[in-house]
User: Fold DUF86 domain-containing protein from Gandjariella thermophila.
Amino acid sequence: MRRATPERLRDIIDHIEEAERIRPATRTELESDRRSRTRLDRLVEIIGEAANHVHPAVREAPPRCPGAKSSVCGNHIAHGYFDVDLGALWNILTNDLRVLLPRIRAILDGLSDDHP
Assistant:
């Protein structure tokens, strides 16, 4: 059985918060720390996958997150086996997730018991 939308939204929140906790302070640190880079890449992949499973009616309801689903999908940062676009990953970590987190929280807070 597929997990319900609120659970997916909580997954997104949890993984964004973890990414924020372990994200290096600079892109140079990200480039030099393979362990952190690999973990952060995986967290972004999980966030994108969870976003893919949020009910479309919820994704389109206010407050909308235009582009959020696509901006965190792994195919935008991975260009092949072991080839991650570090610029794209850094942008997601430092910009997209910071914007996405409060919007996801607002969506989750606004869901009623009769959510899709």
